[in-house]
């Protein structure tokens, strides 16, 4: 039973990390695109 819970928690943290990456890298990518457009 505990192994199943650990697996669910691991999957949840993966999803959170992916969501955080979208939040962090989304604006950065937009800034990079704007920077290259101005060059």
UniProtKB/TrEMBL annotation:
Superkingdom in the source lineage: Eukaryota
Descriptive protein name: Uncharacterized protein
Species the sequence originates in: Gongylonema pulchrum
Organismal lineage: Eukaryota, Metazoa, Ecdysozoa, Nematoda, Chromadorea
């Amino acid at each position: 039973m505990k192994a199943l819970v650990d697996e669910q928690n691991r999957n949840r943290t993966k999803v959170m990390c992916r969501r955080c990456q979208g939040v962090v890298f989304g604006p950065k990518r937009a800034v990079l695109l704007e920077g290259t457009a101005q060059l």
